[in-house]
Amino acid sequence: MPFAALDPVDPLNLEALLTDEERAVRDTVRQYLDDKVEPHIADWFESGELPVLPELAREFGKMGLLGMHLEGYGCADMSARAYGIACRELEATDSGLRSFVSVQGSLAMFAIHRFGSGEQKQEWLPRMAAGEAIGCFGLTEPDHGSDPASMTTRARRDGDDWILDGRKMWITNGSVAAVAVVWAQTEDGVRGFVVPTDAPGFSAPLIKHKMSLRASVTSELVLDGVRLPASARLPEARGVGAPLTCLNEARYGIVWGVTGAARSAWQAAADYAGQREQFGKPIAAFQLTQQKLVDMALELHKATLTALRLADLKDSPAGVHPAQISFGKLNNVREAIQICRTARTILGANGISLEYPVIRHANNLESVLTYEGTTEMHILALGQALTGHAAFR
Ligand SMILES: Cc1cc2nc3c(=O)[nH]c(=O)nc-3n(C[C@H](O)[C@H](O)[C@H](O)COP(=O)(O)OP(=O)(O)OC[C@H]3O[C@@H](n4cnc5c(N)ncnc54)[C@H](O)[C@@H]3O)c2cc1C
Q1: Domain Acyl-CoA oxidase/dehydrogenase middle: where (predicted)?
Q2: Quick one: which atom of ligand 1 is closest to the CA of 139?
């Protein structure tokens, strides 16, 4: 019996592994983004803004994308696979969209869901799930990135109240957030606080001049004697392990998300190579171009297999080990950025134009390579897991 033609976009038939529900998530998110976002995303990237944010947040809320893998409080309570697939489609359009959803759901909402009081959960999670309240997550500081345990933002007691002083840097969603989850040193070590952004002494100036994640809001957080009631502290968060648990959630979304950016770049390069003629034939017919397209496809689909495996581990009773997430984040981001850079070469001069998605994805992935633990940090985390020796300091 003759074989059916290979699907160039899915040569290993990995989409056949998805359930009907997961395919429905994929197609609903894809359709929405194709209709409402794709026609504008290059302009938003160029102008360095996400001008539709309050409306977009509500639309994402209606689609169940905010806190998608969390239970209760209006969250969709879907599988890790479904959440990953949504991240993939979002990032196939732009890493800025996936970053928005990751920070809202996996960082800000997850922190409150996992470590918050009943009152904090009731107050914030339903509105955040609906996209009516945007959240941010303030861990990084100007002088403390990869080593957050050394943070200098302080929370001190004043009677029953807490007073927060310090600065956070590179905070996604900061300037548009209604609530900030802020991590600070206390006499008892690192603790988390739920800070309404209209609290006196809180401000979130926008960070400008970014050449990456331009369709995403990135801000500084300034905490200048911000007074909070005792009830603002996340009661179950103790030590720097608490924010790291949240980061692990967001990294899982990145493992999937970057396969979307890489898929988009591969597709753009393959289409271009089929149409662009030089020396009398399509550049896809040259061996050197084919080698690029084949190598890109191998890494893209190996990355998807890694994401699928991590999803199944995450959905299993044993769960997924943080070092396994490091495996996925390290491999998939590193390969995705290489795929985008190779795709750019296939497009020649057009590769540097925003008329095509490739350079935008490549530039965005420079941020993704750095945030949620740099490549180097994940090498060290995996190195420790594999050898038993910590080489961080
Ligand atoms: C667009 C964007 C959005 C972001 N959003 C958020 C957010 O919402 N919330 C938040 O809290 N943070 C956010 N970040 C911050 C991000 O998490 C940090 O930038 C990241 O953790 C790295 O910290 P750093 O930039 O201070 O680099 P550094 O930690 O100063 O690292 C600089 C270089 O030194 C290397 N290095 C450091 N230590 C070692 C070591 N022991 N061994 C070998 N190499 C080492 C690093 O790998 C890196 O290559 C965001 C960043 C960007 C770019």
Answers
A1: 136-226
A2: 11
